[in-house]
Amino acid sequence: MNKTFNYSAMKIGIIGGGQLGKNMAQEAKKMGFYVTILDPTPNCPAAQVSDKQIVGNLHNKAKLSQLVEESDVTTFELEHVDTSILQKMYDSGSSIYPSPYLIELIQDKYRQKKLLDKSGIPVPAYRSVDSPESLRSFGFPVIQKARKGGYDGKGVVLLKSENDLANGIKVESFIEELVDIDKEIAVMVARSIEGEIACYPVVEMIFDERVNICDTVIAPARIDEKTDAEAKALALKSIEALDGVGIFGVEMFLTKDKKILVNEIAPRPHNSGHYTIESCLTSQFEQLIRAVTNLPLGSTKLVSPAAMVNLLGEEGYRGEPIIEGIQEALSIPGLSFHFYGKKETAPFRKMGHITVSDEDLDTALEKAEKAKRILKVKGAIKI
């Protein structure tokens, strides 16, 4: 992209209109850009803060074409999209970042893992599933993952023994060794069109085991300097191997014997980077906009330690969301409250998040856990 472009007239297209798209749009609007969203839900969260919404399915070739044609640069809120038409437009000179070829590779977690492996990046032992017998090839317990379509714990099954084979994933899949994990960590990495690269602090992720959704993010991760440096180096090497442009969430396992294995990569803003809105000089969302418009990347300096907690829809409720405890929670010093504007809640649906910044990491975490106990997202309909 030409750096002499008239930035005051720039139009940005975002594929997907959920909470990530909303934050992306807010940053783009702050910088003065015109924002168009493609999403099937009218008045989706991102559309509420954008100039225009194209209502359409993310696999609708005509709607995808329209978005790209109406935009100077197009980027992604999520990777579950039809890439075929985007590849044709990319090949014809349209500015689409990350490349739709990279999006297609990332969509297939097995292909993604093979590329990382071939690039010398340590990953858990893995094997394609091409017969019922291959599910047994690592012994038990073993992790089975769908090659495509999985997110937020969906498409991942723990097979503890032969008895669990009946519950295995029926779509195209692969297996992975069950790693003896000490911590799950992540690093956000930004890379510009010209190859400038910036790395955020290593964070620690704690998961809700009921549904395997990230529950809490701790920034910085409680790890030693050697592990911190190794994690950042691996994250940078991973994005260089992908030749990615944009922002990427690199999820990793830190094993009990202090080895780091790359789990998977998200080619977009990531839940583990939400803390950057309040706690870094440049948020992950602003950084993405900078990267795909060929602007210099911003500083990733951590201004303050932070703890981020996802606000999930309470079990037993659906319908119009009702927030309980907001008055008490917002009285906690250093707490920032984000509600995504989704019209309906459902059990474990991501409805918002809170971030608590504090000079002391332990205090930030204590405050965040207190707020988590207070805040509840219920629904108008009890189920």
Key features of this structure:
383 residues; alpha+beta; Rossmann fold; Dna Ligase, domain 1; D-amino Acid Aminotransferase, Chain A, domain 1; 3 domains; nine-stranded antiparallel β-sheet; four-stranded parallel β-sheet; 19 strands; globular
Task: Describe the protein in words.
The chain has 3 domains: 7-96, Rossmann fold (3-Layer(aba) Sandwich); 125-177, Dna Ligase, domain 1, CATH 3.30.1490; 181-382, D-amino Acid Aminotransferase, Chain A, domain 1 (2-Layer Sandwich), CATH 3.30.470.20. β1, α1 and β2 form a beta-alpha-beta unit. Helices cover 25% and strands 30% of the residues. The chain is globular, with a radius of gyration of 20 Å. It has 10 helices and 19 strands. The strands form 4 sheets. Strands 9, 10, 11, 12, 13, 14, 15, 17 and 18 form a 9-stranded antiparallel sheet that branches. It has a 4-stranded parallel sheet with strand order 3-2-1-4, with helices on both faces. The chain has a 4-stranded antiparallel sheet with strand order 5-8-6-7, covered by helices on one side. It is α+β, with helices and mostly antiparallel strands and 383 residues long. It has helices at 19-30, 61-70, 84-91, 100-107, 109-118, 225-242, 276-279, 284-292, 326-329, 361-374; strands spanning 11-15, 34-39, 52-55, 73-76, 126-129, 142-146, 156-159, 173-177, 181-191, 197-199, 203-208, 213-219, 246-255, 260-266, 306-312, 317-324, 335-339, 350-357, 376-382.
